[in-house]
Amino acid sequence: MSISVLKKIAVYVLGDEKKRGKLFVAVGSIAAGFLGLMCLPVAVLSSMGSMEVEPPEIDKSLFNESAIMAGLDSEQQEQITTFQNQGQAIEDAMTNAGVRAQTIKAQLIYLSYFDGVQDFNAESYANLFAIAPNDNDLIAAINSTYSLEIDYNEFMRTYTWVMNSTINEYMFTDSTTKNCTDLAAWAENAYVSGWGYMNGFIGERNEADRIRYADNAGLMLGYLNYNPMDKMFNSDYNTLVYTEQGSLDTMPEVAGIGLFDGTQHGIYVGNGEVVFSSADCGYVTKEVISNAEWSSWCTYEGVDYPQEVQAKINEIQNMTKEENEDEE
After folding, report:
1. What are the residue ranges spanned by the domains of the chain?
2. For residues 112 and 287, which has the higher predicted lDDT (pLDDT)?
3. Topology adopted by domain 169-319
């Protein structure tokens, strides 16, 4: 079975969340014609961008863990078990290293390129993610450490496809509340995952092209309406309700605060950068705040903010009150 056929099967099966479950598809690394790595919390190749794929004729009943495992010899089953165990070890190590949000990236690199690496240590691997300032340096460090030749641009294209196909479950610090830290992570994830701009969308996949979209307000509404527990969007919030709190020179340094330029919203993600869904660009983008015309910062109804933000709001309100009293 050729790799191109395997990719078509992967797209067909993994493109449907009901079929997908927690199936992880690896192509070509274990045995010719092999398809299936189960129980890793990653969905790979479920979206191939603009690539047009006709679903192949396959027996869909074969795509469950027991059926696939039964078709493998003992050596292949042992390799599957090793990959599963390493996937869990990577998840644990990434969490301990404080870079849990990059778990999918770490697992994808491992499954794609590490079949010949000996004496793999998940903790040392996770540390590379913790100290790398950016993805370019990360790939360079991985190549140097493990004597690999991962092409950065090729990997990032694949990673974007993978991330666009799912909502990163590892980015949430508290899946039981709606908080500004996770709102910033949501915005950053939408940017990394290559979400497009489309009116009326809040982060769902468009069934026509299998790409995720959000309009400007939809980027925030998507976070408010997404339930990480059941991994589905609800309709609790239909309108983005916000309060302008002050000019940018009064904004506290807190990721997840909203920015406003009079017409569109953005989410501050730290380091002087803002992420927003742009109708002009046609996709979710990131820019330095000083390069644009953001005029005020705001808070959103439904999002919890730390005391630091409330203290700044109280300070601004008191200053405004004093100024009004002086004028009287």
Report:
1. 3-164, 169-319
2. 287
3. endopeptidase fold (from Nostoc punctiforme) (3.90.1720)
